[in-house]
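Annotated sample (chain length 320).
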Amino acid sequence: MARQENPFPYSLDNKRYHTYNYELQKVFGGKVCKISLNAGFTCPNIDGTRGVGGCTYCSSAGSGDFGGNPKESIPEQFEKIRAMLSQKWPHCRYIPYFQAHTNTYGPLPLLRRLFEEALSLPGVVGLSISTRPDCISEETARYLGELAQRTYLTVELGLQTIHDETARRINRCHTYKEFLEGYSLLREQKVPVVVHLIDGLPGEDRAMMLETAKAVAELDLYGVKLHLLHLLRGTKMAREYEAKPFPLLSLEEYVDIVCSQLELFPPQFVMGRLTGDGAKEDLIGPLWSLKKFVVLNEIDKELLRRNSWQGKGRKTIPKV
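Output written by the structure step:
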């Protein structure tokens, strides 16, 4: 398909959704890579503050399976990963990504030391911080707002679903109301916010997943990350599945849901991802998710088949 046939304006690679690569190229004019770090944090639903055991789907690495080694310093982790990336992209710039567990779950002096240390590393042009909405205090939000004034900052909030019944089932240990409170503290300080959603959570049907997307689409966000539920060995959810199996999404179902969610999101939302990575040796299902490029290609094909694009369901597309 020729580029001029694509009706979606936020695109440099003929995608019909607003990719993170497009946004970084627009802002920095060249390749930018995220470097996943593990600062050794825990979570309030692990240590007993809000609950124990963590989210039922989460591995022991706390979503940081592909990040650095928490036994190493931030500069050591950064340099090891940077050295590998530079073999493919020798002139790349970098965004340190505090990914594992809850990265604002600590005293402000510690957060300040870690984040400033990461910003001082060579080639760094921004910072990305993943956390929970119930771990944003007014003090922390003010500091993040100050950071956002002097670097390219995004704060990623795990929501997963707006449905509190589902959140209780997966042991999130916070409500949708609490998410909105944390989100509001950040936006009051003009901090760019990215929201994580998971499709395929147990007990949720297509209508519930689209309801979550509709609610999130009305927020003032930098972007969204869509994840497929990965059922991983060693998790509480895997034990629940073994005792009483629940449906896992098929590739066709997932593609349909993602495309329908994309149609609901404003075209300005940066789509940080449309699927996720589950460690191959731990993945129980869906096994089709291991073929990540196949999943992305099927999403592209379905959008083309529908003659659709991100935000089409919102009727208007603003000019770039």
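Annotation: The chain has a mean pLDDT of 93.
Annotation: Residues 58 and 70 are 17 Å apart (CA to CA).
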